[in-house]
């Protein structure tokens, strides 16, 4: 089918369903960051394959909204079709909401997919359109009947995450949720996030690339703990484990009907995650308490066993990245290497390590000006060749049985300009200034964020993204609620939270520099009644001394850097396999002075 | 009347008014920070004279809530009466709201003064008590009929604030408000804040100590600009000026009746400021738009004329404070000086300068451990004598025709301990770290606050107050909306905003150190589309070199300090009147090095 044929087929479905507009968003029934192929309805309909975007079709219009990362790609991919590109956050282009406010008339109906819209977003849209007396209708997908070669639902087997990795049995985690429910006078809790469910029930899956989760819902009541999942994904062994932990397994599709039969006074859920179909299945008389997921809160602070494992995973991952960077510097000098082949080589180094599962996301392997595009990734077909000059940026991570990692290094492949060295050193200052912070317990990532930005602002440079994000444990590489960002947040940083620091300098057409380490929030000291926290580093990969101008660093910054390299040397030396690697490590970790 | 007689008399009024509880808060009809004597109902009733606190009387109870600053004073002042002290933020003592939730029963009525409660607080209380089916009633003061020797309403004359100080005529300021009203589709705006009204209509008054304001309301409609004020306060000249500016003067008491006769569709007001009596006067059919005062926003950024004046006022004020500190150091060595006599002397130095009106607040003149109490102030009866050792802290400010100032210095009166020097130097680091910030336009004081705190947090010390506050222009010494604080705020810092930086170290029984300068937000540079701002210093008083340990400062901090002292020397030298002062200034401004 061509795109225009798809649009016509959708319009027929819309006419049958009696809707005047139909929105196709980019989401699965769990509001996951990464979607399995089965749920990519917007990409199928429009031909535009970016990771974010929203399409809208009416009787006579077909529009697709995309953000700045994708203007060029989207325009190219929808070319020749009826779809018109709507550039997000661009003057002259209304947002989807503004468009709906302008165009939708009294009595008209806007349709959307009942499982890909969260209840929160559905309510927002209904409120938005109420003043113009238009309505919003959540429906079974109108794409489903017309998408003929649709990929099937993923069917990867799940596996148990052993107690030596989790530190806590599923039944204890469930008991804690029940305590939280009871404190809120509720008798049930719907758990929707795939990461939350995998963590709660101590399993991992393979349904989504780079994210060891499985499509599932969970429902906790005072006496039952349900897991709704395709039973084909469970081995006999897994069934036995769940049974021992008091977990009742039912088919994925049954979640709505089980919820509709609940006979309870109050249910807790997170409207940002629960889809409209699930929400509407809740019996009318049941009170609903909308609050951030208990499990998300519970898993945000690593327990001692998780933390010990996570630290070990970081050391192994750091060794792989460090060996890769040594290899790369030699290879670039020697001859033929490009962004794509290099990323493949990094995979090889990682997969040699213990407990390796997968990458935690598609590596950003970017040479020279490509690195100025924050979300650049080479493909097997499209990549740049590297030369023995300027910067190479590699942002990558691993999934291991004992942890999830995320690290970025920018390295000199040869001689650098003064501007390149200055920007690298300022990025380093920015990183260190946040990394060495001591802060009052209760402080938020919003408060701390400026410690990283100010050293760059001082030189009239800002990076247009957050400073750092939370990381899951053998789960999503982006997991909240903690983060470093200018966006207001009331989430306090707590001991055991895993968070990245990744400031950068991005100069279009020139270079991109990002230096990312991962940290765990740790106790620093106290002065009763005040307690103070710090960030304890977990990543150990040398920061490229060849790109640093020591005269731009303060004494404290040089001390931080030398301490860091001393720790890198100590942690990584056992993993160096050749004399060349050993001497490279020693050279990379030599102390700097002004 | 004794306190208990007052309580009995109030209970009779309560019985007549059919209320079961009566709240006496600390406020005037404008929610002013400082009250004129006429409005101090809570102090009259309870005998407790602190600047904050709330009393509640029921048939069989009499309670007064006070905060930590006043536990000792309040307990002493209510001793022997029926009043019981309720310690705020102290375990075992419910807050007023918690107490009401626990004690008030269905059908009961809580009364309060209709002019001292803001509509926002009234609505909050009504919502709080709704679940227990109790009600809140805003009434004419029940204290008024029983307070026999009540001070009359203040009657100070107002005076015109000339164009050379204001930079903008009142009619232009009024026109701007009308534009803002029209953008909000409103036809009227009630202005309640005494500072807002004085600024809007370009006058100043003398009704409140330290604050050159007059009791008044303003109402702007599309064709009228009303000033409700006691006409005795106006000279013929002032009447003429108001008439030229299109301002209609009416008696203070007529504001409610004029509002009740408005025939408009929509009115704008700030519920945090409008009292319940005014609010209830608004005709039922009028739509109400509740938003922060336009005038507060408009006056927050000084115009070029205001800024130029404000800077001049700071230089003169700095000269007075500097000469005072030089005098004090000599006087302490010579013999007899105490906190109270010293503060009197500071007044003398200030009042010698041009354009002096008043102090901007009661000076905090605190020696040794007294300075650890953040809000300490000596009186003519109770003060400490100073000795030639340890620290003296002076936090003071002036009101001038051309500006309002606020500055704190802590100085060594003789030899210091290592701990005193360390704490002083860390406070200085904290101050400098925020003072030298460069920040992206749009940043808030909440984001910047940590730049001052982190250098102290690093040593496990925190100050339990904001880092800085806005200052009015020939108005309140505390004026928003800008501030530096950990409390969340969405108010962006903008060019022309006047703000203090005043971190401190407070060690009970030992010493208190605070270093406060005032700054104006200024343009720093740009990197399109990003604009960057900085803080430009306006206060020029030496920072006591004798208390600094240079080895604790970074190179950048020493550079900032030496640059600052170079500027102090240049600005103040013309104001030094004797050779001794001149050589003191030179010594105080000598450059430091590690």
Notes on the protein architecture:
- Two copies of one chain form a homodimer.
- The longest helix of chain A has 31 residues.
- The mean pLDDT of chain A is 96.
- Chain A has 594 residues and is an alpha+beta fold.
- In chain A, helix 13 crosses helix 14 and helix 15 packs antiparallel against helix 16.
- In chain A, 34% of the residues lie in helices and 20% in strands.
- In chain A, a hairpin with a 3-residue loop joins strand 10 and strand 11.
- In chain A, the strands form eight sheets. A six-stranded mixed β-sheet of chain A has the order 4-3-2-1-5-6, sandwiched between helices. In chain A, strands 12-11-10-8-13-14 form a six-stranded mixed β-sheet.
- At the A-B interface, strand 21, helix 16 and strand 27 of A face strand 21, helix 16 and strand 27 of B.
Short description:
Chain A has 594 residues and is α+β, with helices and mostly antiparallel strands.
Extract low-pLDDT stretches of chain A.
none
Total beta-strand segments of chain A: 28
Give the overall form of chain A.
globular
Mean pLDDT of chain A: 96
